[in-house]
């Protein structure tokens, strides 16, 4: 038994309530168990019970043992003055009630089948604790739970965006630029690309928007990719541009290296930075455009970019290759929508209390193709499929924030499975 499970049992009243009595043999009737409190103070508030002939409204505190009241330091704590019932698993202080509150012991009132099913979930070693039972969960449960998981994930990402926003003189364009550049770096070069973006504010880039070679020089130079001698005329041009601009703006050195190893050529940092330069060249104040734009298709057209002609014959500087166009692909655009556009848009809606903007972020995820990765593949193997990115983001949140931590009691799917155990019909 653990305290979270005991809270769950009390919250949903999964125990025998017939002829309930306190440990003092007083008749107990429960009208309302109260609202679960996740903040400081008693576990449940606004409960309503009757002990003997007296009706009480107040808080309920839940512990494994009666003596935990003292161990947790509740005695003398003003937050617990409104407690009307102390719910415990085991009464280890019979006749001696800390806090002098009525005590209800549940150890002999809870069905063993519930405890057994919960123990099975915790002991499950598969992909997720409930993988053998999940197929029986009703669609209506899944639908509501995935919607909540998606909002939880967006809210968590938005909190990180807002932290950057607060630390950056409240510039949405710069924060979006940082997130966008990091996204272009993919997992391997994410930190390095973000460091490059942070060293090149949007206002600085705006001065050179009309010269894509200068934008490339700034990005490639700050990424440390223009060092060394070269006989390639284009590289020499970029080196000269970067040398001048680096001195002019006293650009800081970026110490995060970029990597090429074990990457597809289309994802080489040189190609991604060249695409990023072209995106800035064509649409500098991107985030303002995104906030004002209603449909995702318009944004997709803005991201349908190709780097300049040099990159038709190169994946890396100084190393010519056969002709190959390097247009930003649909999969990469989907990644940008999922990991940059929608989280920053949702954060903007939160900050300005604009529900339509938050709803747009959610709707754009529902209009984007689902991600394909190890987690979504494993869910597919147990019968849970993704229709769109909203689904895949919800499942990622479920796996990483609930299943890995075995928070089955906080999960609507886990709750449904345990309720089925209690009510098999």
UniProtKB/TrEMBL annotation:
Q: Pfam family of this protein, just one?
A: DUF2851
Which InterPro entries does the UniProt entry name for this protein? DUF2851
This one is known as: DUF2851 family protein
The root-end lineage is: Bacteria, Pseudomonadati, Bacteroidota, Chitinophagia, Chitinophagales
């Amino acid at each position: 038994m653990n305290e979270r499970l005991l809270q769950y049992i009390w919250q949903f009243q999964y125990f025998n309530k017939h002829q309930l009595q306190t440990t003092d043999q007083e008749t107990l009737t429960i009208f309302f168990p109260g609202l679960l409190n996740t903040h400081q103070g008693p576990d449940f508030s606004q409960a309503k019970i009757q002990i003997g002939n007296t009706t009480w409204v107040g808080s309920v505190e839940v512990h494994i043992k009666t003596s935990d009241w003292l161990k947790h330091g509740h005695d003398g704590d003003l937050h617990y003055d409104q407690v009307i019932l102390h719910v415990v698993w085991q009464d280890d202080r019979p006749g001696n009630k800390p806090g002098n509150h009525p005590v209800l012991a549940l150890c002999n009132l809870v069905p063993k089948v519930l405890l057994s099913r919960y123990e099975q979930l915790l002991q499950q070693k598969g992909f997720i604790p409930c993988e053998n039972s999940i197929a029986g969960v009703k669609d209506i449960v899944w639908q509501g739970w995935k919607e909540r998981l998606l909002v939880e994930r967006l809210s968590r990402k938005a909190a990180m965006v807002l932290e950057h926003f607060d630390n950056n003189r409240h510039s949405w364009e710069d924060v979006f630029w940082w997130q966008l550049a990091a996204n272009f770096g993919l997992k391997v070069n994410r930190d390095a690309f973000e460091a490059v973006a942070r060293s090149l504010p949007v206002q600085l880039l705006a001065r050179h928007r009309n010269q894509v070679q200068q934008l490339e020089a700034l990005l490639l130079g700050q990424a440390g990719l223009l060092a060394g001698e070269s006989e390639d005329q284009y590289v020499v041009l970029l080196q000269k541009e970067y040398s001048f601009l680096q001195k002019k703006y006293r650009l800081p050195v970026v110490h995060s290296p970029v990597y090429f190893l074990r990457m597809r050529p289309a994802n080489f940092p040189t190609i991604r930075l060249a695409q990023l330069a072209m995106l800035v060249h064509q649409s500098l104040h991107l985030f303002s455009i995104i906030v004002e734009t209603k449909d995702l298709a318009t944004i997709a057209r803005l991201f349908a970019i190709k780097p300049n002609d040099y990159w038709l014959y190169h994946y890396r500087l100084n190393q010519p290759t056969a002709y190959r166009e390097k247009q930003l692909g649909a999969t990469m655009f989907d990644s940008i929508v999922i990991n940059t556009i929608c989280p920053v848009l949702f954060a903007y809606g939160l900050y300005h209390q604009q529900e339509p903007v938050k709803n747009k972020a959610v709707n754009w995820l529902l209009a984007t193709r689902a991600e394909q990765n190890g987690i979504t593949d494993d869910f597919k193997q147990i019968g849970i499929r993704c229709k769109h990115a909203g689904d895949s983001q919800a499942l990622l949140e479920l796996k990483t924030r609930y299943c890995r931590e075995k928070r089955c009691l906080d999960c609507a799917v886990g709750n449904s499975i345990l309720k089925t155990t209690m009510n098999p019909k």
